[in-house]
């Protein structure tokens, strides 16, 4: 059993209440930070922990904090990104539903570290029940003196508010989220200036994911060095993985970074294997934006090493043969799933969610959806496959925010690894409507030499 | 598209206005526009959708231009710009839910309610639509029903039958 730092007590009855959360050691970290540490000490501990942003980008949290500008007399803000919308990802919902105080405790510690006196938790609007849960928990915390004026006699003041979104994936991008919090359309801003210099209301702002903020609680309780002992190399600590698709036990799992992918899929501690006795065909390991990998490449790297659930191992081989940790949205496809159909589905998602500011994304996502639709429904041409690659390349890197890349990668990677399935849809248009391409060679172990050449 | 079929003026109730004011107090002075999304949610919960007269009133309340409200209401997919059924079944149609049967569930709902996506049943009780990922992929297929956004998970045809029967009362 791996150690659990975030959701160890998730099954304790009443853990959503302040009383039970405190019985299980809750708010110790707030007391420790506010009574015995300076804000800079807290930043140092988070730096030592090696914690990397859990929303998807994996940028070191402590370093992000240290970039925050601190001009005299200008308020600073911490905004929690709880706009969880990346297909395949549902860990933040889980945490907020069952242990809301873990997020609130983390918000107090993090706000203290950054010198923010007003902080916001931006929750996607569809999570109205979670918004109610958080508001109730905030009221409890305030009542107990953990929020408001002069918290625990430390002289530090903090007000915490929950803000609902309106149903827009793009608001998970930090500058779009800030725009939305200002009451505007979620159009990402051109950077620089970065939010650390000019964010919410043009003031220095840090935006962090729910899980990153909650992780500061064990980091302060046990120390950054203890946290960094868990994991492998630069992938320290634990990570919440949202497991979905054709597996026996979908759900949210807290893993110590470094668990082999094979163990994660097949062990009863985690996904419990592929559902209905089917075989594994493919995995999207980090939310819909990251490259899809066939079964053989997700288990082993191109060099034949076991692939691990770490930022580095999942990315081993670059985009040629690897993928990314992303948000930890682990989507599993069995042998009956059609990669063309799923790629079309994802491209429809990105087309729907493009904010429309940048033409490569606004137009390109629509073209990709259209071309994939005709391939899926048996009206495609072989040249469509290269057309998709071409369009995806012209979106990638040519937009203000990463939504363009996020739309391009699933298409490019599906064609890179499953080109024969796309070709089959063109060559067998009738057959592709009534049956599917199946597992083919996608689980067949890769010869080392071939893989090396591909690299 | 904004619907201009409804033009009669709207007066918000004192209780609703009190909620608006509480929300405005969460932001620094002069930043009351931040209250726009939470207020639009309250308006939709009260009226079932967001009409142009309602948006004009919200603009007045927040001391902003009506266009600032329209551009926001048309950007975010949760806001209904025309009247809906009393219950709107919003079914997730994104990848992970489709791996476990969301498309079949949507077809079943369409057949069961007898209306196409976005249309309202003759008795005004129901409408339905496919929506993008609802962040509950491990429990798919899923649907939600506003204004409380109650969640229904691991959907089957039987569960849809029961849900619709329960809602009909």
Q: Helix proportion of residues of chain A, in percent?
A: 40-55%
Structural class of chain A: alpha/beta
Radius of gyration of chain A: 22 Å
Q: Tell me what the CATH architecture of the largest domain in chain A is.
A: 3-Layer(aba) Sandwich
Largest beta sheet: strand ordering of chain B: 2-1-3-4
Order of helix and strand elements from N to C terminus of chain B: HHHHEHHEEEH
Strand percentage of chain B: 5-15%
Distance between the termini of chain A: 35 Å
Fold and architecture overview:
The complex is a heterodimer of chains A (455) and B (169). By secondary structure, chain A is an alpha/beta fold. Chain A has three domains: 18-228, Rossmann fold (3-Layer(aba) Sandwich); 235-334, Ubiquitin-like (UB roll) (Roll), CATH 3.10.20.600; 339-454, Up-down Bundle (de novo design (two linked rop proteins)). Chain A contains 20 helices and eleven strands. Chain B folds into two domains: 14-75, Arc Repressor Mutant, subunit A; 87-168, Glutaredoxin. Chain B has a four-stranded mixed beta sheet with strand order 2-1-3-4, with helices on one face. In chain B, helix 1 runs antiparallel to helix 2 and helix 2 (36-47) runs antiparallel to helix 3. The model of chain B has no long low-confidence stretch (mean pLDDT 95). Chain B is elongated. By secondary structure, chain B is an alpha+beta fold. Chain B starts with 13 loop residues before the first helix and ends with a helix. Classes of the chains: A alpha/beta (455), B alpha+beta (169). At the A-B interface, strand 3, strand 7, strand 11 and helix 15 of A face helix 2, helix 4 and helix 5 of B.
